[in-house]
Amino acid sequence: MEHLRTRSEDVLNQLFHLHGCKTTEIVIPELRELRRAHTVSFGSESLCLLNPDCEDGRRIMYYHMEIFKKVDVIVTPTTGMTAPELPESAPAVGETNLQVVASLMQFAITANVLGLPAISVPIGYDKQGLPIGLQLIGRPWCEATILHLASMIEEISAEYRKKPVEYYDILKGKVRINVLQDTIERERRN
């Protein structure tokens, strides 16, 4: 978790120095209730929180709209942890670990449940080489704001971008080997 925080803060500091973007720390009320509602609505495909007759949904949306009077974008890590190690049996039988899922989803819940526009931007890697991302959550109908900010963050984080040594090229429909990346990695190790 510390890697997520450190890299996120680094990117936000760079946004300030390069583009003058101000960071304001905020508190979002009733996140525990939002997580519970997400579990219920996501699991049962219920849209309770989006139902105008649902008091909890209106109250939680109200809190977020009050926050958006103070800030243009809510910035969080994309996930609460980097990718977990999968058990060997996972490809054959699947995996259900609700604690891991809760940690992975803890920041995505807001946009998912409230229907707010959001985007995840890669910003680097942890010590194990696993990707770290920032999530940008915008006001309703303000996709342009988060896309513009995402573009600035991608520019700042370009040096941290790397292509996997082996990957599937969906446009060409085949596995590709990134020879340059593989060569660079071997040279670094030697």
Describe this structure in words.
There is one protein chain. The protein has 190 residues and is α+β, with helices and mostly antiparallel strands. The protein has helices spanning 2-19, 31-44, 55-67, 90-93, 98-105, 109-114, 143-156, 179-189; strands spanning 73-77, 118-125, 131-138, 166-169, 174-177. The strands form two sheets. A three-stranded antiparallel β-sheet has the order 1-3-2. Strand 2 (118-125) and strand 3 (131-138) form a beta hairpin. The radius of gyration is 19 Å and the shape is globular.
Summary of the model, kept short:
It is built from eight helices and five strands; from the N terminus they run αααβαααββαββα. With 190 residues, it is an alpha+beta fold.
